[in-house]
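Task: sequence design from structure.
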């Protein structure tokens, strides 16, 4: 089955409008990219989209703690991860880079503290 999608590349400030052709779920052609990163982005976005997750968790004895995923998460897992993080409460002190939730939602990605608290 052949499919055509149009997406905007977010890998650089150019914001190229990409036309991506897929055949049986595999990227077969990418047009509109002004750099190599656009082709790489199109292949990833159409086959296995991922996103970085940044948010905050509660601190029992202080202000909310900014946290982020150590690496991009599968896009379809982001909302489930947010639900899990709503229930997380940590106790200060917490060092920047500390693992707050290991392997969140079975994704293999750790949520880490962005700053110290």
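Answer:
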């Amino acid at each position: 089955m052949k499919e055509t999608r149009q997406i905007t590349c977010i890998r650089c400030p150019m914001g190229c409008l990409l036309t991506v052709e897929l055949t049986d779920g595999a990227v077969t052609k990418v047009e509109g990219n002004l750099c190599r990163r656009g082709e790489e982005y199109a292949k990833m976005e159409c086959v296995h989209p991922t996103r970085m997750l940044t948010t905050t968790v509660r601190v029992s004895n202080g202000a909310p703690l900014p946290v982020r995923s150590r690496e991009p998460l599968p896009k379809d897992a982001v909302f489930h991860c947010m639900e899990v993080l709503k229930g997380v409460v940590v106790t200060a002190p917490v060092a920047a880079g500390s693992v707050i939730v290991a392997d969140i939602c079975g994704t293999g990605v750790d949520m880490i503290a962005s700053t110290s608290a």
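Helices lie at 36-47, 78-86.
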